[in-house]
Specification:
elongated, alpha/beta, six-stranded antiparallel β-sheet, 17 helices, five-stranded parallel β-sheet, 564 residues
Length: 564
């Protein structure tokens, strides 16, 4: 799919309408380089086009009004978007050279509940349905993984991790398994497996077993049970030698049954509370990960760094915001089992209260039966061993259940890994075909022959990029991303793999002038794609005529949302 147009409306009034074309699409900031510091290009909203396109493709609204390029205008932008009738319309087209080809029209606003607008081709969708529908329309797959947000991440390079990593474009909390699924999908291998969820369950079971080992191992539990069973057998024989009235035996059986219920419920409550504690500990660990650094202190540090590195693009506040958002999402993910645990705990504690009362009642009745003191001592000791047996039996059960769960998980993971490794020849062939394009593009752009490789590592296919010449610098890293993104679109077209035919790239100014010239005048034109770049005019080579490349011009007097 290609970008056709982006339209921003306030009610019926059109604020911006951007028409995209094939090739280079520039959002140019014409703020004069000798303007006041407050009028620099970091306040006109040149990256907003990228953020709005991302928003329409199931991105976060906060990335727009929390964008540090607006600095002190954040609250003004937030109020403008959330209190006005602002609608963002993104129109995609399957073949930009054929106006009659299939189209996707997306519309979203920033309001909530009944006023919320979230449509695809005029039809409303919930949040989950919205992402799934876009995935099926664009990437033509119904597999659960990779998610739509993961699939689009490579094409919208506007955040720190996507600006420093060519293929590791997901959040810091995504696992190697998530990358394996994504990278294989890029090359037309849809494994349709949820290895990531299995790995998360495996990690939780390993944490549970580490906690259990602090008390005792499974072997210790089994050996202790043998001794306890022997003592129960001895005391039971001794108890049976007493000649008691018939009612006493039946009442004693009822008492033992009540005690067994109490023991079983107590152990189950302990087990549930242990799992709840593990989840809460994880949440506490994550909460401590929220950065609480002083914004004022950070600002002073940033200003000092700015004086040393004039081209510094990002503020530390953005990194804090991104970091904390990722932690919050993970907290939400691991908190989803707490409600069920609390319901089970409530039910078990209610039952425990009932059997404790029964135990008390029966004990009082037995005391009235005139049993000898020696028998009571035997029964008391016997009950103690039964309580110990209940605890040990529950520990053994938890251990055995966890071991079985881990065994099943490991079997499933091995099976999945074997299925993927059986396709190794196909994977390597596809990577070889991709490298023919990638190496050619990277060599032409910056003289570095970059290569992609993949190999299994502990059951997980790991992809990496290397080059013949050595580690790239900052500028070369940006050009490597450009080479990779363009090479991938060319590769996907050759192999008929559905993909987004546009790349949104921020901070292209870090690329050397000669590389920018090659990108603008040669490389992009070799690929059936769109390359959308927000740039400062004074950072571009003066010898490039950008008139036909511009799709939007901005300045300190004409900001994106046209707010003063």
């Amino acid at each position: 799919m290609f970008l056709d147009s982006l339209i921003v409306k306030n009610g019926e009034q059109t604020i911006r309408e951007i028409k995209f074309h094939k090739g280079i699409n520039l959002i140019v900031d014409y703020t004069a380089p000798n303007s006041k510091k407050t009028d620099s290009g970091n306040s006109v909203g040149k990256t907003t086009v990228l953020r709005l396109i991302d928003f329409c493709l199931d991105g976060s609204a906060k990335n727009i009004y929390s964008d540090p390029e607006f600095k002190d205008s954040n609250e003004k932008i937030k109020g403008f978007l959330t209190q006005q009738n602002i609608c963002i319309n993104l129109n995609l087209i399957e073949d930009i050279d054929n106006s009659d080809s299939r189209r996707i029209s997306i519309c979203r606003n920033f309001l909530q509940r009944s006023k919320k607008i979230q449509t695809i081709n005029g039809e409303k969708y919930s949040n989950d349905e919205f992402s799934s529908k876009l995935k099926s329309l664009i990437f033509k797959t119904v597999s659960e993984k990779p998610t739509f947000k993961q699939l689009k991440s490579k094409n919208i390079r506007d955040e720190k991790n996507k600006l420093v990593n060519t293929i590791r474009v997901l959040s810091p909390y995504d696992t190697d398994v998530a990358y394996e699924t994504l990278h294989l999908f890029w090359f037309g291998i849809d494994i349709n497996q949820d290895k990531d969820e299995l790995v998360r369950k495996q990690n939780l079971e390993n944490r549970l077993q580490a906690r259990l080992k602090k008390e005792s191992t499974l072997s210790q539990v089994k050996q202790t049970l043998l001794i306890v069973d022997s003592e129960i057998e001895r005391l039971t024989v001794k108890k049976d030698n007493f000649n008691l009235n018939p009612n006493y035996e039946s009442q004693l059986d009822e008492l033992n049954a009540a005690k067994q219920h109490v023991n079983a419920l107590s152990e189950n409550i302990s087990r549930l509370e242990l799992r709840k504690e593990l989840i809460l500990e994880s949440i506490d660990d994550l909460n401590r990960g929220f950065s609480r650094a002083s914004a004022e202190h950070i600002k002073k540090m940033y200003e000092k760094a700015k004086s040393l590195i004039p081209n510094l693009q990002k503020s530390f506040e953005e990194t804090l915001e991104f970091h904390n958002n990722m932690i919050k999402e993970k907290i939400d993910f691991i908190s989803q089992d707490l409600k069920q645990l609390d319901e089970e705990l409530f039910a078990d504690k209610k039952s425990l209260t009932y059997y404790l009362l029964e135990e008390e009642r029966l004990s009082k009745e037995l005391k009235k039966s005139g049993a000898v003191e020696e028998l009571q001592d035997i029964i008391s000791e016997l009950n103690g061993f039964y309580e110990q047996k209940g605890k040990l039996t529950e520990q053994r059960s938890v251990w055995e259940k966890s071991n079985k769960e881990l065994e099943e998980i490991e079997k499933s993971l091995v099976k999945m890994s074997n299925e993927i490794e059986s396709k190794d020849m196909l994977i390597q062939e596809k990577i070889a075909d991709f490298n023919k394009i990638f190496s050619k593009f990277s060599s032409k752009l910056d003289g570095v022959h970059s290569l992609l490789s993949a190999e299994p590592d502990n059951g997980i296919y790991k992809f990496s990029i290397s080059n013949i010449e050595g580690n790239p610098g900052t500028g070369t890293k940006k050009s490597q991303m450009a080479s990779f993104d363009l090479a991938y679109i060319a590769f996907a077209d050759e192999n008929k793999i559905p993909c987004l035919h546009f790349v949104l790239q921020d901070q292209i100014e870090n690329v050397h002038a000669n590389q920018i010239t090659n990108l603008f005048t040669d490389l992009v034109n070799q690929v059936n794609c769109q390359y959308v770049l927000p740039v400062l005019r004074d950072k571009l080579p003066n010898d490039i005529d950008i008139t036909h490349l511009e799709v939007l011009s901005l300045s300190s007097k004409d900001k994106f949302f046209k707010l003063s």
